[in-house]
Amino acid sequence: MNHADENKFEPGQPTENHATRQLIIASTSTVFGGEYLDYLTDEMAQLFKDTDEIIFIPFARPGGISHDEYTDRAAKIFKKINKKLVGLHTFKNPIEALKTAKGVFTGGGNTFVLVSSLYRLQLMQPLREAIFNGLPYLGTSAGSNICGLSMQTTNDMPIVYPPSFKTLGVIPFNLNPHYLDPNPDSKHMGETRETRIAEFHTQSTVPVVGLREGSWLRVINNKIILKGKFKARIFEQGKQPYEIEPDTLINFL
Amino acid sequence: MNHADENKFEPGQPTENHATRQLIIASTSTVFGGEYLDYLTDEMAQLFKDTDEIIFIPFARPGGISHDEYTDRAAKIFKKINKKLVGLHTFKNPIEALKTAKGVFTGGGNTFVLVSSLYRLQLMQPLREAIFNGLPYLGTSAGSNICGLSMQTTNDMPIVYPPSFKTLGVIPFNLNPHYLDPNPDSKHMGETRETRIAEFHTQSTVPVVGLREGSWLRVINNKIILKGKFKARIFEQGKQPYEIEPDTLINFL
């Protein structure tokens, strides 16, 4: 594996056609008390309305489960909306598969593992281009993290060393999925999520959207809209964090 | 900055004299309701009994504070035990400073920032050798994380990209500082600390010691002993996690 070659991926270089984007970028796959993806099925059916077959990117491997096992788990849910889900790991030429895909879903797990796999297989750039060319894309958790400019506001442990922290950059900010408010009763002295994001802003000017579980971003052409029942928390360098309401257009970042 | 050169650091290569190690490796600098380092002052006075001057490594920069500011904060505490604390950033030749140091304290903050700085200044190897040569070392949080074989079980956000995740390797396992038990009442669907460490063990055979706040490891020559009031949680690949009592010798890992 040649890290130097993999690092050639440079978001911002290819033509970006924001007017064709179609994405659901969700904080979590599963809300408390719910089943896998159930709160999103209506939105998913709408996103993938023009295709019966969707490619699944299982590389984030939650809990280390196999690609097959993860694909099977997700495929069961897609069957309910009459869609066939096919694991990207089953294609001989995954780059070509992404170029011709009619829909992609990237599941959650460990963002470091996911990003390392995407670089190793040289899929970061083709996936980015496909999304800007109108590929309908669903991400949850780690699969959402990679939509941002970098994975540097992930909550995950660095269990593998990726060749870069740069990610797809199909939205012009970073995400913090599973965003968690500080617990005022906590006696734990570790950093809160808000403190961690403030530390990120000592190093970067990239805004961060803290997406609470049950929230998602719906990207339709040029618009990025907060969906779900909850507010999102916005972090910008040098500003006090602030909340935005559901259905807010967040193109201002 | 040449990443290839920095990656030359290879723990395990130099002569390791475990019989001369003198370390305090603490989960946190501050316990709930306490002041900075106050629960550790007796142990610190003992560790640093043979020197009046200790070098402070401020590079983890909690909340992004400056090296001077962080050194001043820590120096106030060391004054109480009649020790002078000098920031490593004030030395013209920090490599030489570590080689001749009589005591070192590395404070907490962001482990990615700390590790990036240590590599950039080529300090990882000199610090490792100094510790194996008997340099008394105190670490808290990020400063403890770097004592393990890698920083891959840190809780911190990857806000900068270090040239490697390898760390000092002056103890033969990894740490998870600020270890936090799962909250049975939580409705949050993000991974627990235990789940994250289990994911690490899908990638690595390195054991992990979950150190609760208020616990520390005291390394005296060949012995590594759990200190403080709390049990620690041990994670080994392929085993159920288990607890060990204070004052347990953990040379078995």
UniProtKB/TrEMBL annotation, chains A, B:
It comes from the Bacteria. InterPro entries: Class_I_gatase-like, Peptidase_S51. This is Dipeptidase PepE. It comes from Aequorivita marisscotiae. The gene is pepE. Keywords: Dipeptidase, Hydrolase, Protease, Serine protease. CDD domains: GAT1_Peptidase_E. The keyword Hydrolase applies. It is an enzyme of class 3 (hydrolase). Its EC number is 3.4.13.21. Pfam families: Peptidase_S51. GO terms for molecular function: dipeptidase activity. The keyword Protease applies. Belongs to the peptidase S51 family.
